[in-house]
Amino acid sequence: MRFFVDSINESSLILGRNENTDIPVGSVFTLIGKTRLNDRTTWTSTDLGAVATVSLTLVIVHWYQREIDNVPGGHTAGLAVSGTGLDLLSEHLDRLADDESLYLAAA
């Protein structure tokens, strides 16, 4: 399961978009991965793999101004997490090139 990270807001919510698989509350994200956009016309990208390990447990999913029990596949959401690695995620976001993006991965 992968959640593509756009930003972290002032309330420490991780904002981004899910792939096609639901991510339930209680899931543990164990790594930060990176992708690079190859072509803006076809939106193809290359997975550059893991850049750091984390242990972030999904506690609350904020979705359209309400709290739900999973991140629906293919949707945007705000994730409240507990654990270690949020500061590391923020550091990696600050260093991204314009053609790169980050994701959190959970088993």
UniProtKB/TrEMBL annotation:
<protein>
    <submittedName>
        <fullName>Uncharacterized protein</fullName>
    </submittedName>
</protein>
